[in-house]
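In this supplementary section we document a worked example of the pipeline. Step one takes a protein sequence of length 146 as its only input; no multiple sequence alignment statistics are reported here. Step two produces a three-dimensional model, which step three serialises into structure tokens for compact storage. The input and output of this example are shown verbatim.
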Amino acid sequence: MTPTIISKELLPLNNKLRKPMVEKMRRDRINSSIEQLKCLLAQEILKQQPDSRLEKADILEMTLNFLQRHDSSSHAANQGFSRCVGEIVQFLSKDEMKTQSHTRLLKHFQKLQTSCEQNMKESVLPEQKTFSKEMNVNKSAIWRPW
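The serialised model returned by step three reads:
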């Protein structure tokens, strides 16, 4: 036999041996990431499920709920900031006595206002679709099949 034939014969054997190892490494990465999420959201988890053992799906759902709430509060803060910038531009535009620093400041806030408007348009997320009506009723509750 030639060396190329031997390596072609051993290739399926190597793949069969490597596949379980790769799968175990993948599961370990998933489990490690879920444990990290659990540690990051420890206070949130204690609020919702103080004494129960959490499944991986529970941790992922709580993480998703937390991020959705955080995203909506961040969106509200961005709207408030954008509104303030708009009022500043409006105020600076009314002033008739314009110095060089006044003009530079107005241009700065106008650029900021434009970038705020672009960010607001880009940050609008499509509505979250849930897989069941029960999830829409109470998003903070953990779904359990039993």
